[in-house]
Design brief:
The protein is mainly α. It has two domains: 59 residues; 36 residues, no CATH class. It is built from two helices and two strands; from the N terminus they run ααββ. It has a two-stranded antiparallel ribbon. A hairpin with a 6-residue loop joins β1 and β2. It is flat and about 65 Å long.
C-alpha cells in the first residue's frame, strides 16, 4: 500500500476517534445539564416520563410475564413460545407440547 494511502488511513482513524470522543463529551455534558435542571426544579425522571420505570431502581415489575404455552412431557420444563426454542421442542410439532 502506498505511503499516501497509509497516511490518509491514519488521518481517517484520527478523525473517527475525535468524532467518538466529541460525541461522548457532548453526551456527558447533556446528562449533566439535565441532572442540574432536575435538581433545580426538584423533579424526578418519572415526572418527565411517567410511563417509564427508572433503570436505577432495578425494578423488573414492568416486564410482562407470560404464561407458559408448552410443556416437556419428559421433565416438566416449560416454554412460553418466546425467544429461542428449547432443544426438546425444536423441529417438532408444537401442538404435541401445548399445555
Amino acid at each position: 500500500m502506498s505511503s499516501k494511502i497509509q497516511e490518509l488511513l491514519k488521518q481517517k482513524e484520527a478523525i473517527e476517534k475525535a468524532i467518538i470522543e466529541e460525541k461522548e463529551r457532548r453526551r456527558f455534558e447533556g446528562v449533566e445539564k439535565i441532572k442540574a435542571i432536575l435538581e433545580e426544579y426538584d423533579l424526578e425522571i418519572n415526572d418527565i416520563f411517567p410511563n417509564r420505570v427508572s433503570k436505577s431502581k432495578g425494578s423488573d415489575s414492568s416486564i410482562n410475564k407470560v404464561a407458559p404455552k408448552y410443556r416437556n412431557p419428559e421433565n416438566g420444563n416449560t416454554w412460553t413460545g418466546r425467544g429461542k426454542e428449547p432443544t426438546w421442542i425444536a423441529g417438532k410439532d408444537r401442538t404435541l407440547f401445548l399445555i
